[in-house]
Amino acid sequence: MPYHEFNCSKCIPERKKHAVIKGPGEDLSMALPLGYLNTIPGVISERGCAYCGAKHVIGTPMKDVIHLSHGPVGCTYDTWQTKRYISDNKNFQIEYTFATDMKEKHVIFGAEKMLKQNIIEAFKAFPDIKRMTIYQTCASALIGDDMQAVADEVMEEMPEVDIFVCNSPGFGGPSQSGGHHKINIAWINQKVGTIEPKITSDYVINYVGEYNIQGDQEVMLDYFKRMGIQVLSTFTGNGSYDDLRAMHKAHLNVLECARSAEYICNELRKRYGIPRLDIDGFGFEPLSASLRKIGLFFGIEERAQAIIDEETARWKPELDWYKERLRGKKVCLWPGGSKLWHWAHVIHEEMGVEVVSVYTKFGHQGDMEKGISRCEEGALAIDDPNELEGLEAMEMLKPDVIFTGKRPGEVAKKLRVPYLNAHAYHNGPYKGFEGWVRFARDIYNAIYSPIHQLSFLDISKDEIPADKGFVTRRMLSDAGLGEDVRNSAALRQYTGRMDCIAALRKKTYPEFLPKPKPAFLEPAGAA
């Protein structure tokens, strides 16, 4: 087993089995790190908790719901506005967050009375919202508050409202994935089957495991609409609470993120006989195959193929343009869970980049298996890395860019490694044919940004390096510095000017931005 031991973690020998380098000709039995285990004390894990997995990932994207955390205010604050789960309800679920704000006295004497008061106050403050989800935290779970009894009492007094209770304390699992499971099962136990929907098509689906990050869902819904498919509910991006109560009437469950939502799909299959079909909205080939599978299920393959042909003809030339300029660039693929394997192979095949490392913070063994099987030999696979291990990996691998979350991404910047937000995107959506090109464009801009290349200059030394990234000497000379490029005082004065950014942005360097550019890359109205 080719385990990799980080120097920073030698004092924690258990960590050695959580990192593996994929060797030549090795199968998964020889290149699989341990995963989805309880965090080892002392590693300073960056994982989220089960409460975070339930509220932040699954629950919060519901658009017409008051999301109330029964616990200290820090819990709800930590899970507020950190992802771009947009909605057509004026982003109500992003704009507001609610907490009972438990204090020490409530832990000692109980907080059920305060919870009821908070529920009523929240509904009165937002009279147009008639639905609520209450999330349990560690504090309210440890003292044993009966949130369901309080919710039932409020619903009896206010029959126009409906309340869903999710018992998902932070300690409820090894990571946020434990919370995914809890809210999936709680929703089907409490709410599915309590409303009968209006069916308007012969082809009806639930779109499951989709959270509408920067509009991802809208891209996919457009394809479904063009195929004549009715999307009964979306679990849970831009999802309506009452629509999600009617999931039992779909003909097919179309599953996007298996790590967060396969549980409810499996239960819908067991309880209501609804088949599950896993799809992938990222990448031209995976998306095309997914649309064909859905079309085959309903017997409307020709509709799916028409969309594929039209979209491919429109966007493939632009994707190929970026592929030529990204070929061979090294990428650390460090997302949360399912994007590990959604992206690992397709970014190599369709964008030309080399995946030199994969990691997951809360994925299960199955996620790591799929991810490792789809990346190249020599890739470093890590389960539940911490900040020091991430820094050491970047120093060793020297990637051109990393795809990760905002917190580790900001750490990467300290090493002058650009990053793209794998969780909430930089300039999404990234799903769909156009979205995939947008993703390639963001990668290109991150790697070839003149401002990023300028960060390699060390103005604290007398000698200014001239061999970093872009041809630095010429880049500065073109911007007006001339022979003063080696004069650190002049450089400090130059870099302090706000117009240096604008000047550098206007420059075109043939070796990195070949001409002529395709017409679709020229600005509107350009000659």
UniProtKB/TrEMBL annotation:
PROSITE patterns: NITROGENASE_1_1, NITROGENASE_1_2. One of its GO terms (molecular function) is iron-sulfur cluster binding. This is Nitrogenase protein alpha chain. SUPFAM superfamilies: Helical backbone' metal receptor. Pfam families: Oxidored_nitro. It comes from the Bacteria. Hexamer of two alpha, two beta, and two delta chains. Belongs to the NifD/NifK/NifE/NifN family. Its EC number is 1.18.6.1. It catalyses: N2 + 8 reduced [2Fe-2S]-[ferredoxin] + 16 ATP + 16 H2O = H2 + 8 oxidized [2Fe-2S]-[ferredoxin] + 2 NH4(+) + 16 ADP + 16 phosphate + 6 H(+). The keyword Iron-sulfur applies.
